[in-house]
Predict the structure.
Amino acid sequence: MQIGPYTFSGRFFLAPLAGVSDRPFRAICRSMGASFAYTEMVSAHGLVHGTLQTESYLDRDPDEDPFAVQIFASEADVLARGAEVAVRAGAGIIDVNMACPVKKVCGTGAGAALGRDPRRVEEAVRAIRAAVAVPVTVKIRAGWDDAEVNCVEVARAAEAGGAAAVALHGRTRTQMYSGRARWELVRAVKEAVSVPVLGSGDVWTVDDALRMRAETGCDAVLVARGACGNPWIFRELRAAELGAPRPPPPTRDEWIGTVLHHVRLQVEHRQRQHPGDDPLELERLAIRELRKHLLWYTRGRRGGVHFRRDANRLATAADVAQVIEEHFPAGSSSFELDPGFRREEEGE
């Protein structure tokens, strides 16, 4: 699998997830076997104007190469200028979000709204390509609604503008994250363009990811919320790629070790951003940011309901360790997954 000059050892990537795929979570997923990971969505306007929050999105591990930054804006010139800032910060790939369905983003003409007009898509990609010397990729949706399914036209426009790859989430903007993703559209896009195509949507399990590859012919699969709370999915996918036996699920001790490692990484991430601030306040901020991940890690487990009940009392790393021990003690059944639990029922 290749994007521009970069060759990837595998075909299962961590998708760009707003508010999720920050440096700590990318590091966790990469350590599990994800072949590549994008940043969360970053405002090109924020990059141009140098806001502190936006700059925090550019925090990365030194060995994260290539570093892929996903940007969004509605204006081609702002996207180009934002890409320049990201490249100066170390980005080796620029990805353009043309898929975000939320009203706040689409209302500005960005995200999925930009993908309504193939001409604007081509102009945006062409402008970025003229501004930076790194590969430019795009992520798009099936279309705006069932009456406006234009992903093939948009993919072709992106390729005409110089895109090095196209990722498709097989839902329309009006679907948001409901209903089913149309994998047949991933195949249609794959057959319509010559650049690599990445598939996204309804990838909850290892079997889902492997089936998407087989059914669509896509060059790579973006694992999104299927990895939230379950970064071990990448360990299983890597084993499948190598023809090795499927690894067993994490033990209780390994699971706790990963959760607490994620906590430490999140605290360090915040302290790097604000080196002069009170370390305890930064730790509290990190735990607040991490709370959604902690709920994902514990969902479906017998002790998860009790953990969620106490989630509001989590303020420090020590609190997390204590509450985990309380609700998932060694030798108890609380760590076991409920036999009826299915991740897709939690929503994608």
